[in-house]
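Minutes, project huddle
Topic: does the predicted pose make sense with adenosine-5'-triphosphate bound?
PN asked that the exact inputs be recorded in the minutes so nobody has to dig through chat later. Recorded below.
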Amino acid sequence: MPLETATPVPAAAAGEHDDLAAVRAARRRHRATVWGLRVLVLIVVFGSWELLSTYYIDPFYYSKPSLIAQRLGEWFTDGTSKGSIWVNLSATLQEAIYGFALGSVLGVVLGILFGRARLLAEVLSPFIQALNAVPRIVLAALFIIWFGLGMESKIATALVLVFFPVFFNAFQGAREVDRTFVDNARILGASRFQVLTSIVVPSATSWILASLHTAFGFALIGAIVGEYAGADKGIGLLISTAQGTFDAAGIYAGMILSTALALLAEVILGALERRLLRWRPPSQSAGAIGI
Amino acid sequence: MTPLVQLRQATKRFPNGRGGLHTAIRDVDLDIGAGEFVAVVGPTGCGKSTTLSLISGLQPPSAGTVTVGGDQVQGIPGGVGYMFQSDAMLPWRSVLANVAAGPVWRGLGKDEARRRARDWIARVGLDGFENYYMHQLSGGMRKRVALAQTLVNEPSILLMDEPFSALDVQTRALMQQELLRLWAGSGAAVVFVTHDLEEAIVLADRVVVMTASPARVKATFDVRLTRPREVEDLRTTTGFIEIYREIWSSLSAEVDIARKGQTRAA
Ligand SMILES: Nc1ncnc2c1ncn2[C@@H]1O[C@H](COP(=O)(O)OP(=O)(O)OP(=O)(O)O)[C@@H](O)[C@H]1O
Ligand SMILES: [Mg+2]
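Predicted holo structure (C-alpha cells), as shared on screen:
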C-alpha cells in the first residue's frame, strides 16, 4: 500500500534523556545568570543613589532609598495620612481595572466593527484621528466636574486612555485578516457572523493582546492622574499629599506602589497571552507588536 | 441535459492598479459533467485561479454566464469544495478543529462534526495528529488536512488549485495516488488546476489547455487511460507518453508566448 505511514512523534527515547537534561540545565544556568545580573543592576543604581544623597546631594529634594523604604514601611504598618494603605491601593486598582475593562471592551468591539465596515471607517476616521489628538489627560479635570470626586471620574479617565490604543490595534487586526481564510470559511459554509467570530476575532487577537499590555499601564496612569486632580483616596492622592508637604520620599513611595501594580498586571496579561496564543510557533510568540 | 458546471463566454476583468482594467480570462467556454475529473493546464498568470473563483461563486463574472447544476451562480453554490492555492488552514486551530469547521458551520452538532472529522483525518492518513497545530505539521501533512477539511463536506464539485505544487516529487506522487483513491466512488466532479502536465494526465479524464493571458480554452484532450491508475507506473507507459506529446505540443506554444510576454514586461 502506497500510504504514507504517519505516526505521532514518539516520546523521547532513552538516549535523548541525557540531552534533554543537559539542555534544561543550561537553560537554568542562563536564567540564574540573567536574574543575578538584574539584582546587580538594582544594587548598583540604588546603592549609588544612597551614597550620592548621603554625601553629595540634598536628600530633602532628591530623597534616598533608605528614606523611601522607611516611608513605605510606615504606610504599611501605621497607615498613611489618608487612611489605611490597603484602602488606597485597592481604590486605585479598582479604578484602573474598571477603566481597563470598559475601555478595552469598547475598543475591541468598535475596532473590529470599523475594521470590517469599510464605509463606516472611511466616514468616521478623520473624527477618530481628531479625538485621538486631544490631550486626553486634561479630560481628567473635566470628568471631576461631570462625575464628582468619587471613583467614576477616575474610571472615565482610565477608559479614555485605554480606548484608543486598543481600538487602533483591533481595527488594524480586523483589517489584516487573510483573505484566503475568509474565502475558505465561506466555501466551507460559514455565515457572515461565523466568519466574524471564527476568523476575524481570532486573527485580530494577537494584535489586541499586544495593545492590552500597554493599555493596563495607561489605565493606571488614568486612575492616578484622576486621583491627583481630586479624590478622597488612592495612590494619586497620596502622591499629591506628599507633594503638598514637600515629602519627596512619599512621592517615590507612591511611584513604587503603582509600578508594582503595573508589573503584577503585566504578569497576569502575559500568562493570558501565552494561553491564548499557544498555537503559535515558539519563536514568534515572544515578539508582540506595539501600538 | 445541462452539464454540472457550465461556463459560457465567461470573462473576468480586474482593475490593474494603473486605473485601467486587466482581462484575466476572456470568453471561456467550459463544460464539466457530474463525476468527471478535469485537469486545467496553462502558463502561469493566465487565469486558471480566476476560472475556479468564478465557479466557486467567490467572484462574479464580468460578462458571460456561469451555471452550476443548471442554476446561474449567485453567491456560493451548494456542494462546492475548494482547495486554495495558498494555505488556508487556521493556524490557531488544531487539525481536528480545522477539519470539523465545515460541518460545524453548516449546523451539524459538535459531536457529530467531530466524529466525521476524525473519520476523514484517518482517511487522509493523519491518525494521531488530531491535536497538532498547523506549524507542527510538514507541508505534505498540511495538504492532507486541507483535503480532509474539504472532503468532510462531501462536495459534488471539488475545485483544486495547484494543491500539490509545493510538494517534493515523492510526496506529490503519493498525494496524487491518494486523491485518486479518495475520489473513486465519491461521485464528485473535480476541476484540478496544475502547472504540471504529467500530473494532469495521470489524474484526469480530460485535460483542458488554456491560452496565455488572457486565458481562453485552447483545446481539450480526452485521456483514455484505464482506471484504477497507479501514478508511478503510468508515467512510463506508451499510452501516457503519446498523449503527453500530443498535449505538450499544444501547451508549449502558450508557455512560449507567456514567457516572451514576461521578458518584454521586465
Ligand atoms: N483580485 C485580483 N485583482 C486584480 N487582478 C487579479 C486578481 N486576481 C487575479 N488577477 C490577475 O489576473 C491574472 C490571472 O490571475 P490568476 O491568479 O487567475 O492566474 P493563474 O493562472 O492562477 O496563475 P498561477 O498559475 O501563477 O497561479 C493575473 O494577471 C493577475 O494579476
Ligand atoms: Mg493560480
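Observations noted during the meeting:
- Confidence is low (pLDDT under 50) at residues 1-10, 284-291 of chain A.
- The first helix of chain A runs from residue 14 to 55.
No decisions taken; revisit at the next huddle.
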